Amino acid sequence: MQITAVEAIVVSLPARRKHPMAFGGERLGRYVIVRVDTDEGISGFGEATVLLQWGGDYGRYFGESPETTVHMVQDVLAPALTGEDPTAIERAHEKMNRTVKGYPYAKSAIDGALHDITGKKYGVPVYQLLGGLARREVPIAHSLGILDLATCVRRRRPRSRTGSRR
User: Fold this and answer.
1) pLDDT of residue 166
2) Neighbours of 77 (CB within 10 A)
3) Given pLDDT bands bounded at 50, 70 and 90, which one contains residue 35?
4) What is the mean pLDDT of residues 74-98?
């Protein structure tokens, strides 16, 4: 099996509320969906939840805008990966890292798409590829932004039927 095409598109979700952040800005909701196609007709999908201002732990990296991520995926990483085996995920990472330094959002979206293809090829969910089911529910964080305490308390998520916060 070989990668034949890689496409990245920006998707926008409507804002539900303002979300003030320490690094500035309040706009969230623009993401990148990556589709990787193969010569066997299997397509995989990945997502890049980009933040332009986020620099990773200790600021070692740099953020990506949706437009930057689309450019890196389609114009830089796609040509490097076309013709490669999508199930050879570690090799794809090596190739991406040799092609360009940084751009973790773009690379992560491609990684997700490659795992999706691999799971589809072998008929198993991606969690099986990553070591198996570890828990039935995954706790999630709900980002409130930089707000005063009273507003944060009002905006907290209600508890689900199982007692956990949704």
Assistant:
1) 47
2) 25
3) very high
4) 98
For 9, 41, 65, the CA distances from 37, given in Å and listed in that order, are 14, 7, 24
Confidence of residue 86 (pLDDT cuts 50, 70, 90): very high
Q: Rounded to whole angstroms, what are the CA distances from 81 to 44, 47, 64, 112, 151?
A: 14, 17, 20, 14, 47
Q: Which two tokens stand for residue 108?
A: 């992560």
Q: How far is CA 146 from CA 8, 17, 68, in A?
A: 31, 13, 26
* pLDDT for res 149: 81
Please report, for the chain, the start and end positions of each structural domain, with discontinuous segments joined by +: 3-129
CA distance to 40, 158, 165, 166, per residue, from 161 (Å): 43, 10, 9, 9
User: What is the per-residue pLDDT for 96?
Assistant: 97
Structure tokens at 90: 């570690």
Question: 123 is written with which tokens?
Answer: 């008929």
Q: 133: which residues sit within 8 A by CB, 6+ positions away?
A: 127
Fold of 3-129: Enolase-like; domain 1 (3.30.390)
pTM of the model: 0.79
In which residue are the tokens 């991606």 written? 126
